[in-house]
Specification:
Blueprint: E1 4-6, H1 12-27, H2 36-58, H3 63-89, H4 97-104, H5 106-109, H6 114-127, E2 131-132, H7 159-168, H8 170-185, E3 187-188, E4 191-192, H9 198-223, H10 225-251, E5 259-260, E6 266-268, H11 272-278, E7 282-283, H12 288-293, H13 300-305, H14 314-327, E8 334-335, H15 338-354
Parallel strand pairs: 1-6, 2-5, 7-8
Antiparallel strand pairs: 3-4
GO cellular component, one term: membrane
GO molecular function: oxidoreductase activity, acting on paired donors, with oxidation of a pair of donors resulting in the reduction of molecular oxygen to two molecules of water
Keywords: Membrane, Transmembrane, Transmembrane helix
Amino acid sequence: MPKITFNNKDHLFFQSVKRSVEAYFQNNRLKKTGNWKLYTKALVLIPVAVAVYCWLLFGNYSWPVGVLLSGLFGFSLVCIAFNVMHDACHGSYSGKKWVNDFMGLSMNVLGSNAFIWKIKHNIIHHTYTNIDGVDDDIANGPLLRQCITQKWMPIHRYQFIYMFILYSVSTLAWMWGTDFYKYFSKKIHTTVIKKIDARQHVIFWISKVLYLFFYVIVPVYFLGWQAWLTGFLILHITMGLVLSIVFQLAHVVEKTSFDSVAENSKVIASEWAVHEVKTTADFAPRNKVISWLVGGLNFQIEHHLFPQISHVHYPALSKIVRKQCELFGLPYNYYPTMSEAIYSHVRLMKQLGRNY
């Protein structure tokens, strides 16, 4: 991995915004981790997913209802990822480590691996956001050009159209392809995974076997392979589209900036927190329904500055962060609605398909 250094000598912006955030929690006597609002989400979403799964296996329904149920099952799993897994893997679900570790395993229940994801997301993406050559989130293969420094190919002219097809199969590729590639190569893009201990090896393989059992073998036994395959594909199309779109809106839109690094070391001129603000965007901040469903991931600026604070606090923190950005003359990238953010993502991908 190329060595990247941020100019954190003074880090005046982060010191200031951190003081304001600390004062907010102290004055309101609040914990930074989850509260009843977060735990209620888990108590709602997890039983819903289990109920839909059982209904698909044992219920009597027509094929259109089966299609809808498969989509609902995929959507409920995505909401668990947004609302439960994400906070837990960042250590913000609970003040107790064992609770975070346990709830973080919901990532494994969804088909992936919490250990690998923490390195990919918590360490690499949150430190080197939108830096081409390091950030694995913008290294999605040759078919997608997500920043100007990535190699252009003629097919990219149409990426703003076919990218949604790629998004729809992304979780299939992730759970049955890239997870295994990262595991066996011990590498996430250009970053080496230094060590995988025995416990993580066991968890990886047990999780994959259990996923195969509950998501493939059991439904094939009860439903037959044709009905299972149809439902399984709808499940992943739903998961892939929702996951991809929500995360793309945070970084791959017109208002965010990008950087790049090759094999040599590089010094980023700004402090880390300033880099995070410039490379990240919020969307639909006033839409409480979207905020509830996506687990506060529409407040990505706040999340990137304070990843170990639970998302239930982000609406309040957004006012603080926005004011601090204004004081320091920094852009506060946001889109008032989700549809505006989606249009911006499509326009950027269309533009990147033309520039070569």
